[in-house]
Amino acid sequence: MSETKETHVHIMEDGSVVEHSHGAHGHHHSHAQTKAVLNRLSRAIGHMESIKRMVEDGRDCSEVLIQLSAVKSAINNTGKIILQDHIEHCIVDAVEHGDRDAIRELEKAIDRFIK
C-alpha cells in the first residue's frame, strides 16, 4: 500500500508556524461525537462573536475576561470530547493494526493541546 501524506500548516498563538504531515493511517476517521462537537464549536463561535461585540462596545474588561474564560473552558471541554472519541475509535483501531505512527501523532497532538 502506498502512503500518501497530507501537509498541515498551523499558526500558533505566539505567531510561530508549525508544519507537519500525516501519512495514511490505515483507518477511517469516523467519530461518534461529530455532531456534538460541531454543535459545541458553533456555540463557542457565537460566544466569541458576542465577546467581540462587547469589546467593540467598550464593555468592562472584567466582564470580557469572564466571558473569555467561559469560551476557553468550552473549547478545552470540546477538545476532551474529540480526544476521547479519537482514542475510543481511531487509536483502538490503530493499535489493533499495529499503526505506531497514529499513536505518535496522537502524542504530539496531546502535547500541543495541553500547552
Automatic annotation (TrEMBL):
A Pfam family hit: Trns_repr_metal
CDD domains registered for this protein in UniProt: CsoR-like_DUF156_1
Recorded GO MF terms: DNA binding
Superkingdom: Bacteria
TM region(s), chain numbering: none
Keyword DNA-binding listed: yes
Keywords attached to this entry: DNA-binding
Name of the protein this chain belongs to: DNA-binding FrmR family transcriptional regulator
Source organism of this protein record: Blautia caecimuris
